[in-house]
Amino acid sequence: MKLLYLILLIFISSAFFSCENNKGNTAKNIETTVKSLSGQEIYTKHCLACHQEKGEGVDGSFPSLKGKECSIAIILNGSKGLVMPSFKKELSDKEIAKLATYINKSFGNNYKEIKEEDVSKIRK
What we know:
Layout (H helix, E strand, L loop, with lengths): L1 H21 L4 H4 L8 H8 L1 H4 L20 H6 L15 H13 L10 H8 L1
Helix pairs in contact: 3-6, 6-7
């Protein structure tokens, strides 16, 4: 019986300390614990519903992404006028850079690649 209690105590302790170690996770470092997504996968998860599969958006509601350079500031902070949510807390700088680059290189666009450092400068 004592052995059972000891095993249970070790199990509970390891689970507790595992949770304690993850308390400080932020959007910036959580990516290390989760599979790294491509720009297209991030777009599919967060943007596709509004901006549509081909980036054409929805007239009167969600702007088309065709022919427009991606705004890092809008991804980070959102835009009330465009009903665009903020992804500052949800996505890391690396994820936003991948997403912005995907938008800049898709839908017939040919704009510059966005680097993680570009996002961190604007995030501040």
